[in-house]
Amino acid sequence: MTVKRKKLILVGNGMAGVRAIEHLLKLAPEAYEITIFGTEPYPNYNRIMLSSVLAGGASLDEIVINDLEWYRSFNITLYTGHTVTSINTAARTVNTDKGVTAAYDELILATGSNPFMLPIPGTEKEGVIAFRDIKDTQIMQDVSQKYNKAIVIGGGLLGLEAARGLLHLGMDVSVVHIHEYIMERQLDETASRMLRGELEAQGMKFLLKKQSEAILGKKRVKGLLFADGEMAEADLIVMAVGIKPNVELARSSGIEVNRGIVVNDYMETSLPGIYAVGECAEHRGIAYGLVAPLYEQGAVLAKRLAGAPTEGYAGSVTSTKLKVSGVDVFSAGQYIEQPGTKALRFQDETEGIYKKLVIQDDKLIGAVLFGDTNDGAQLFSMIKKGENIKGREKELLLGLPADALASPKGNRLEGMPDDEIICGCNGVTKGTIAEAITAGGCTSVGQIKACTKASASCGGCKPLVEGLLQLYAGEAAVTVKEGICGCTTLGRDEIVAEIKRMKLTTVKEVMHVLSWSNEEGCPKCRPSLNYYLGMLWPEEYVDENESRYTNERYHANIQKDGTYSVVPRIYGGVTSPAELIKIAEVAVKYDVPLVKFTGGQRLDLLGVKKEDLPKMWEELDMPSGHAYGKTLRTVKTCVGSTFCRFGTQDALGMGIRLEKAFERLNAPGKVKLAVSGCPRNCAEATIKDFGVVAIDGGWELHVGGNGGVHVRATDLLCVVKTDDEVLEWASAFLQYYREQAGWNERTAQWIERVGLDSIKQALESPEERAALVERIQKTLSLTTDPWKQIVNTPELRKNFEAISLPETV
Amino acid sequence: MTKLLIGNLNEVDIKGSRKLRVGDTEIALFRLSSGEVLAVENRCPHKGGLLSEGMVCGSKVHCPLHDWRIELHTGEVQAPDTGHVTTYEVEVDHATGSLYLTI
Question: What InterPro entries does the entry give (chain B) (predicted)?
Answer without folding.
Answer: Rieske-like_NirD, Rieske_2Fe-2S, Rieske_2Fe-2S_sf
